[in-house]
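name: query_chain
kind: protein
chains: 1
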Amino acid sequence: MAIVFCNIGWMKHYDGIQGDSIQRGGSYNKDAVGHEVCNFTPCKGKVYGYVQPTGRISVERLGASKGAEQADGVTVVWTAGPDAGGTAIVGWYTNATVFRDLQDIPNPCKSHRSNNISGYRIVASVEDVHLIPTQERGFLIPRRVKGGIGQSNVWYADKPESASLVADVIKYIQSGTRTSRLPDVDTESTANEGNPRLVAHLRRERSPSLVEKKKKSVLAATGKLCCEVCEFDFEAKYGKSGDGFCEVHHLKAISQMDKGEVTTLADLAVVCSNCHRIIHRIDPMPSIEQFRKIIASES
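structure:
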């Protein structure tokens, strides 16, 4: 499968700038309105996508013959930078056609015209397009590491060291579940947090030993592991199967952490799986006390 990653500005809908905004777009964006603002606008059964390459797009690296003007049957993965930092998958086209050079949109739709969009580089059928809701954009692509995206807006991911990541992305696209690629909260790997490259709260590294210390500390103090929000007790509900189980939540959002900041037990909270996931769906992320009040107001 030919695949290419295209990095663009961050938007909610990519269906025109009206009622939306574009953030962290490239320097080519004029007046904070990038050419990608209509990348998911349906237009007579098609969607026309834009990315700003460095020079021309190398369609040969996408399976086209030498000298061809386009590559067909390509999976295009669109990425952008969320507020928390990093690079997240925001959507994709499958079975797309990627052009070497900029093309003119045939019969642009109203949204294209009102946003002064006349050109495109990639086209796909509407049924082969998927835009991920903002709160579910949890699949992060590493940058500046071996096998990850570099500085270019167009990344072909055709090096051997990228194969594992590409396989994960393809599996994610084909899964049909549309779940985010978030790590298990209990199996992270370092207590020294806040490095800017670890860019989303559930994606930053954690220390298994620190998590265990937090659990033991709570058990020693209270004799049980109950959710600090809703008081759910896994052992009380599930017996032996729930013994010693809980999730451990980092109270401080990554955006509030300094580089090299160290996590202590006081920075962690014991929460159930449901509360933990919902806390991370709320932007900005609430404190434990704020989340209790949210739950109380909804009940």
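note: Residues 3-175 form one domain.
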